[in-house]
Design goal:
44% of the residues lie in helices and 13% in strands. By secondary structure, the chain is of the alpha/beta class. The longest helix has 29 residues, at 103-131. Bound molecules: NADP nicotinamide-adenine-dinucleotide phosphate (NAP). Residues 14-20, 38-40, 55-58, 83-86, 112, 138, 140, 183-186, 188-191 line the site of NADP nicotinamide-adenine-dinucleotide phosphate (NAP).
Length: 263
């Protein structure tokens, strides 16, 4: 199937590893011209041939400055993938708190999981309108299973869903389609790195990280019993970005192995 993504200009945030890296690889394979953003480059991202822009998207002016740098290199932009998100808790003590930490944890989680997408989209919207392009935001099943993750993360992702749905309606007439992909547990450095969120949870649970990773699908009600391959999330992103899907507007596609039990 030709997704008609050949030559499209694509911007992917959180692109150095995990779902973002898989998304870059998938767009490059379709012939798209991709720019990836993260705080630091990675060998894997460099190997894709994508351009790289360094930015801390959790800062108030990071997203706008990043978009300005990307558009200075090429003012055309067809697809924006707001993938950056996740994060770690400031201390293990936060796991014992019903609020999952204090104001700093909440502010940090919202900056990375909501504000970065709002600010990046705001800065990129004029270019996306010119291209009659697409925005894809990466949410989480935690938005709909809030107690299964830190509450600030779940709440920020729920707000991202609401923002995405509302923006989709406000900009549809200008030809820009906004949609969401909702993954559940996915095998990325967020889960597998020794200093990532998965390592924190494993420590709190008192198990080694491999045991924790095996446990995630069962505890999350994932019916495959397996963590998701990031390439599978990327395939959903590509389909939503494709001009062959002009009627997909304001949707939220779950790629969650059945973890969300509501219909
Ligand atoms: N993995 C899962 O199980 C899962 C499940 C549901 C939803 N999700 C969502 O999927 C998305 C991707 O998650 P992932 O698991 O692929 O995460 P990941 O493996 O931790 O990768 C995160 C990416 O974001 C970049 N990043 C982190 N903080 C940044 C910042 N302040 N500014 C710019 N870039 C930053 C990282 O590079 P640097 O560190 O170099 O900046 C990296 O490229 C997130 O929105 C996450 O919430 C993940």
């Amino acid at each position: 199937m030709d997704l008609q993504l050949n030559g499209k200009r694509v911007l992917v945030t959180g692109a150095s590893k995990g779902i973002g890296l898989a998304t870059v690889r998938a767009f490059v394979a379709e012939g798209a011209v991709v720019t990836g953003v993260a705080r630091r480059a990675s060998d894997e991202l460099e190997a894709t041939g994508a351009a790289f822009v360094a930015a801390d998207l959790a800062t108030p002016d990071g997203p706008q400055r990043m978009v300005e740098a990307v558009l200075a290199a090429d003012p055309r932009l067809d697809v924006l993938v707001n993938n950056v998100g996740g994060g770690v808790l400031s201390s293990l003590d936060a796991f014992a708190d019903p609020f999952d930490g204090g104001d700093d944890d909440w502010t940090t989680a919202f900056a990375l999981n909501l504000d970065a997408a709002v600010r990046t989209t705001r800065a990129a919207l004029p270019a996306l309108v010119s291209a009659r392009g697409a925005v894809i935001n990466i949410s989480s099943d935690s938005a709909r299973r809030p107690a299964a993750a830190p509450l600030h993360y779940s709440a920020a992702k729920a707000a991202l869903n609401s923002f995405s749905r509302g923006l989709a309606e406000k900009v549809a007439a200008s030809g820009v389609r906004v949609n969401v992909v909702t993954p559940s547990g996915t095998r990325t450095p967020l889960m597998t790195d020794r200093d990532g969120f998965g390592a924190q949870v494993a420590t709190v649970m008192g198990v080694d990280q491999q045991a924790f990773l095996k446990e995630v699908p069962r505890q999350g009600g994932m019916l495959t019993g397996e963590l998701i391959d990031p390439a599978e999330i990327a395939r959903a992103v590509l389909l939503l970005a494709s001009p062959t899907m002009p009627s997909v507007i304001g949707s939220n596609w779950t790629v969650d192995a059945g973890s969300i039990k509501a219909s």
